[in-house]
Amino acid sequence: MLDQRLVRDNPDLIANELGRRGMTLDLTGLQLIAQQQRNLEEQRSSLQAEGNRIGKEVGQRIQQGSDPKASDVTELRQQGNLIKQKVAVLEDEEKQLSARLREQLLSFPNLPSPDCPEGRDENDNQERHRWGKPREGKDLLEHWAIAERLKLFETERSVRIAQSRFVTLMGQGARLERALINFMLDLHTSKGYREVMPPVLVNTASLTGSGQLPKFAEESFRCAEDDLWLTPTAEVPVTSLHRDEIIPADQLPLRYAAYSPCFRREAGSYGRDTRGLIRLHQFNKVELYWFVHPDHSQAAHAQITADAEAVLQALELPYRVIELCTGDLGFSSSRTFDLEVWLPGAGAFREISSCSICGDFQARRSAIRTKDEKGTRLIHTLNGSGLAVGRTMAALLETGQQSDGSVLLPKTLVPYFGNDRLEPE
RNA sequence: GGAGAGGUGGCCGAGUGGUCGAAGGCGCAGCACUGGAAAUGCUGUAUAGGGGCAACUCUAUCGAGGGUUCGAAUCCCUCCCUCUCCGCCA
């Protein structure tokens, strides 16, 4: 959420910055609302001050022995009553304005960082660097074909169990998924990340706090009876881990590595990535998340990205780093690096991690602050996938595929998987 | 799911209509004392939003929302949550 003072005092800045994201908006109406709201607040609070004075006066007189029914006391009470009525009217109006203001503010995405490159859409994203040598070849299979041979998961039967876009991992497939989750968590915790396994049903406040609501309700699965939603990413529960908290500055940064299944409707992606592990309603992900002092978030962004890259490097998976342009930025992010892994079978790079700095955007929505000698300030949050597990498996299958039908695994994974390769059963 | 108890500041805990943002204690910070420390003493120590260069000041907040009243942490209503016992259960 953006600072409402910004709406009041500098709406042009918001319009300009959101314009970089490709939005056109006129904030004069909202600015008026914000100013009216403050106006009413001033009137209301000075009336309340008057009312408080009268209340005290009445109390004092009665305690000093005045007859509660004496005319001077009755007079004061009437004044008090009058003020109460006026306050009620103002308060009502003020609440309405505040609600409208907040509603609007919640629907605005974050302002892009000055460092974020200008652009309309994904075509304007900028490649930053590459790592590893992509495997290329004519007869390389896509991961779903490899998986089919090795019987790693059930697709058709999963429709019976749930729906399309669900997968049931089986045998070596299930084992590899488990190995990957363990490997990723071990790698991150060895660098000081605290491991988290959060609830995957989250309430509306949590989803609002990290920015998924109110705008993207149609992207999440919902348990309507309970005001609970299936979390689309561990970013949501982890943000709310510290919602409404003030974290002492000397405890920052807090760095978490959270494993969770993630649930997304993938609305509007009909026909895309229909086979395999790339786009599912349910997938596993290890998420890195930082709560950081506002002065240190820039460096943290580089670090969290490097920590995500370290997973790909350890798994010997070639990738490239793409910086998203302003037009392709996610809702809560002010600057994002995507990691795209090379899929030899598909012959393409595919997003496998997204490392974002959200500044105080989520912290303001979630009321997460820090305190030091200088006062209380909103903290900054960062998140990055480390990594999406299903897509990692896809990359491993395509990268390690052998002509004999087996799949060679990187050596770091051997102790976790218990074998150096996947073999036909 | 049934029965009961309860939700107050970082924590414990007092407060059942009047000057209460809230006693007391713990914790924390500063100062004093000390060679240094402990102990002790003094002072300070919530959040949000207004106004002010600032000192400071106003308003709101005692689970949430409504109500009664000149005045509510305290009384009334609704909701939420927590705990204990029983039931159920991995």
Description:
The chain has 425 residues and is α+β, with helices and mostly antiparallel strands. 41% of the residues lie in helices and 22% in strands. It has helices at residues 4-9, 11-20, 28-63, 71-107, 143-150, 156-161, 171-189, 204-210, 235-241, 297-314, 361-366, 389-400, 414-417, and strands at residues 126-131, 153-154, 168-169, 194-196, 201-203, 222-223, 228-230, 246-248, 254-263, 282-292, 319-323, 335-343, 348-359, 369-372, 375-378, 380-388, 407-408, 421-422. The strands form five sheets. Strands 1-11-12-13-16-10-9-4 form an eight-stranded mixed beta sheet, sandwiched between helices. β12 and β13 (348-359) form a beta hairpin. α3 (28-63) runs antiparallel to α4 and α5 (143-150) packs across α12. It binds one RNA strand of 90 nucleotides through α3 and α4.
Question: Layout of helices and strands, plus pairs?
Answer:
Layout: H1 4-9, H2 11-20, H3 28-63, H4 71-107, E1 126-131, H5 143-150, E2 153-154, H6 156-161, E3 168-169, H7 171-189, E4 194-196, E5 201-203, H8 204-210, E6 222-223, E7 228-230, H9 235-241, E8 246-248, E9 254-263, E10 282-292, H10 297-314, E11 319-323, E12 335-343, E13 348-359, H11 361-366, E14 369-372, E15 375-378, E16 380-388, H12 389-400, E17 407-408, H13 414-417, E18 421-422
Parallel strand pairs: 4-9, 8-14
Antiparallel strand pairs: 1-11, 2-3, 5-7, 6-7, 9-10, 10-16, 11-12, 12-13, 13-16, 14-15, 17-18
Helix pairs in contact: 3-4, 5-12, 7-12, 8-9
The structure holds one RNA strand of 90 nucleotides.
